[in-house]
Amino acid sequence: MSYFSDIYNGIKTLLTGMRVTGGYFLNARKGTLTQQYPDNRETLKMFDRFRGEVVMPHDENNEHQCTGCQKCEIACPNGSIEIIWDRAIVEETGKKKKKIDQHIYHLSMCTMCGLCIEACPTDAIVWAQNFENSVYDRTQLTKVLNQPGSKVKDGIED
Amino acid sequence: MTKSIHDWLFSILPEGIASITEMVLIAVAYLALFAIAGLYLVLLERKVAAWFQLRLGPNRVGPFGIFQTMADALKLVSKELTSTDRVDKFLYNLAPYFVIVTALLAMTIFPFSKQLQAFDINIGMFFLLAISSIGVIGILVGGWASNNKYALIGAMRSGLQTISYELSVGLSILTMVLLTGSLQLSEIIEIQRTGGWLIWQGHIPAIIAFMIFMIAGTAETNRAPFDLVEAESELGAGFHTEYSGMKFAYFFLAEFINMFIIASIAVVLFFGGWLSPFGITEGITWFPEVFWFFIKVLLIIFLMMWFRWTFPRLRVDQLLTLEWKYLLPINLVNIVFMAIVIWLNWIL
Amino acid sequence: MTNQEIQHIIASWSDKLEFTEEESEFLNVIVPKEELYTICEQLKANTDLKFDYLFCLTGIDWGSALGVIYHLESTTFRHNIVVKVKISDRENPIVDTVSDIWLTAEFHEMEVFDFFGIKFNNHPNLKRLFLPAEWEGYPLRKDYVDEVNMVIK
Amino acid sequence: MSKDQIIKSNFKTEEYFINMGPQHPATHGVLRLILTIDGEIIRNIEPDLGYIHRSIEKMCERDSYQQIVHLTDRMDYLSSHINNEAVCLVVEKGLEIEVPERVKVIRTIIAELTRIASHCLWWGVMGMDVGALTTYFYAFRDREMINDIFEETCGARLTMNYNIPGGLMFDIHPNFVKRVKDFITHFKTKIPEYDRLLTGNVIFQKRTKGIGILTKEDAISFGASGPVARASGVSCDIRKIHSYSAYDQVNFNEVLFTEGDSLSRYKVRIQELWESLSIIEQLIDNIPEGDIKVQTKAVIKLPKGEFYQRVETARGELGVYVNSTGTKNPYRLKFRSPGFSNLSVLNKIAKGYKIGDLVAIMSTIDIVVPDIDR
Questions:
Q1: What is chain D's mean pLDDT, rounded?
Q2: I need a surface site. Which of A124, B243, D227, D284 has the fewest CB within 10 A?
Q3: Interval D81-117: pLDDT, tens
Q4: Touching subunits for chain C (3+ Cβ pairs under 8 A)
């Protein structure tokens, strides 16, 4: 007798499964899971905290907040950040002060762990939400974060 | 139209050449038709799968992606044919043609409508059964000649599967043949014009026969849940692991044409072929009867796709258990049942 | 069972064992490598201890000696013990396998062999597990040098 | 003479080798299994590992404790938050600092979300491995919601690195609670659907029931943990036995089955989805206010000694053994990964079954290869 109940139960479970997929088939028009990526570029907005790449914001006077303390460089586990710095004489005080020449960021080595931004005492570097990072040449992924001719904002001390 | 071409050909050419030309023309027409039909079945499969899975499916090439599979075919044609050094060259190259030719051969005898039929032979069903089991030789040869262990396992499974399920397909067809008393496809359809579709005429045994036929037919075409031959999570790609380019495409296309064949048999045997439901287009002379045939075939194909995108795959020994312990005994009992039904004239 | 009681039981098996609870949350027992197998066998078999779950097997390079650390737990009593064995011969370190006592040790010992070069007597299938068979040296040893691939900060 | 003996005495069959992997759909990564096969029946399985070994343990010996955390994302990438938590807990244990209640609760909620996400992915892949391809997309639909929650709060979807020694990198996003609640209501309707689609299916039942049986003794001896061991009746839930974070504040059941076959391993995970949901439900409404981190020194130096922390990842017990000499780097750091021990049972339980069964068994063991290779 279990032979026939096996058949009955078997068919029943198969039909239950088909009902689930069939239900989705009928409602397929309502919502698809997938996104049509290059088409939805305009509307696609990443979350604020999304870790795309590290950038250094500059204000309208071409000033950033990096003092060149190198804490990010030390915090980075992969050596993605290299800071080339110099000492310059600050005019008001006459003292020598550290100043960045180039803040080099190797995006190709970055694992997006966020330790550098966590370590930065002056919030000079932040996450950008850009995620389209593919390039044809690996060297293009090495970026200089401070803009040419930029200088540190007044009153930023580490 | 076919008649006028026929007359025209015979008028301008000597008889022998004319008939050969006519055959070639028909062959070319069928080839073109089913190559394209196969391609669109692939597209349909992809679309249906996408809708089951809450995706969109192909939508880049042409509106709604209707040229997608054309583009794929183009790509496959232009692809380099690679193979390993150790393959058995002759058999390796032969195998895909085995599969595709047998699939196309079976297509020839289907009556798509009253007029549209290449051959109307009186042993049509028998011919179909004979032809459809040749394809497996291609799979076996392909798997063997590839000199790849995965391909070999796939090929062996294929042999196992086809030999077993051929029985069920045959017996379920036999059940219906009992009812029709004819093997000729056009005659089988004509019988249904008066008494209603065979699944209606034969009621319970016919429904059982239909269910068995669908299960065994899915297995015959090596489709999920019986796709042990390919079984991508177990064997990579099974018997066609080593095939590339157009040779792979032949296997691929053959699978879909086989699916079309199984669905066509089901339509002819159970759902009245090109007859319209309840005779709604009976009186309209201009209405193409072929429309009903294709609609029914597509519905059955959809059912097979539904199976594929819902069920997990069986294991190889469960496949045999299902056939020998369940389908075959039920089928045999069902034949006797059908015979009793006919004997006592319980036909509706 | 408290650590004292465990220590009391184990100490009676041999007089060459050293116990310590400093710098660790578990009871540590340092076993001479000759006695390792018999001690481990008893740790599992003893009905009061029943250390049947070897949850961690670590190889370690102490500089002067190589060592293997076995973290054991009893799934019935939920008490833990750490067994340590020191092997002072760095050139040809050999210690008995415990893979027939705790089956999990088979894989873990292969890993230790792979990275520390400690050989295990009677191991059923001692081979390099992660690294290719022709790899030279044992990377997790402190004196391993690979100037190409290792970046020292 | 039994049937097998008769066959053996009359026939001579040849065994042959077959390489499953490093590229194979069922090995879920770059795992290579050298199978000895007789027809379709598996006689021996020898795993060959190391195709994705990155020497994380050696790298840890050169990194500071903050930096180690992000490396663990890359081990069991499906339980990355729990891996992070393990390292943070061991450092906190060494420094003897107590993190604020808020941190504990948030860590627990995210850890359970991670577990659900991991089990979702596993369910989808399990379906694929036995041939039901549609499961994958349904599972990913639900996993996507969790990933969005993670992305909004932690900034990353997979390798989150949200924990730091002493607390969390930043506070949860204001939308977090609402999104998690939405997810709970959504997911509660979806688990029964999982059951209807796959669990109840007669083919699936036949494929998994009574296949690959792992006995309780073997499970303990092989060091199996997580759902693999719990399906064999071994009580091994670290969340209960050595409770950490906020697990002592919540009620949940340890899911135990006794059969030890593929189906019970499957069922354990499905049940765990419900348990994880219940844990989150208990915590989500009353996340205590407070700090999100304890300020640690910029250079963390653990005191001399040995520290061991065990956590329950989605795959089982993850142990972090730290041997410190008092410097800013660990002297030796060992990850006892659950996948490594769970993989070792494979040869024992899959012998004598067919290739199709092996795929199903591997799937129920839920292997993540980077976790095995580290």
A1: 86
A2: D284
A3: 889 988 888 888 888 888 888 888 888 998 999 999 9
A4: D
Q: Which domains does chain D have, with CATH numbers?
A: 53-373 (1.10.645.10)
Q: Is residue C146 part of a domain?
A: no
pLDDT at residue A158 in the model: 56
Q: Which amino acid is at B253?
A: L
Instruction: Give the CATH number, domain containing residue C39.
Output: 3.30.460.80
Beta strands per DSSP E along D201-331 = 305-312, 317-324
The residue type of D264 is S
Taking the Cβ of residue A18 and every Cβ of chain B, the question of whether any pair is shorter than 8 Å is answered with yes
Q: Rounded distance, CA A71 to CA D227, Å?
A: 43
pLDDT (tens digit, 9 = 90+) per residue, B174-233? 888 888 888 888 788 877 777 777 777 777 888 888 888 888 888 888 887 888 887 777
Count of domains in chain C?
Answer: 1
Q: Please report, as a single letter, which amino acid is at residue B190.
A: E
Tell me the sheet residues that pair with D312.
D317
Write down the domain spans for chain A.
Answer: 2-33, 53-150
Cα–Cα nearest to D259, from D222, D230, D220, D232:
D232
- φ, ψ (nearest 5 deg) of residue D107: -60, -45
Report d(CA D36, CA D349) in Å as an integer: 15
| Candidates D56, D61, D64, D67, partner chain A, best to mutate (most A CBs within 10 A) | D67
Token couple for A102: 């180039």
CB contact under 8 A, A114 and D66: no
- CATH number for domain A53-150, candidates 2.30.29.30, 3.30.70.3270, 1.10.10.10, 3.40.50.720: 3.30.70.3270
Q: Are strands A96-106 and A81-89 parallel, antiparallel or unpaired?
A: antiparallel
Nearest to D197 among A20, A46, A114 (CB): A20
> What number is the average pLDDT over the span B77-85?
82
CB A122 within 8 A of CB A65: yes
**What is the pairing mode between strands A53-55 and A126-128?**
antiparallel
**DSSP 3-state of C86:** strand
- CB-closest option in D24, D127, D355 to B312: D127
Rg value, chain A, Cα: 27
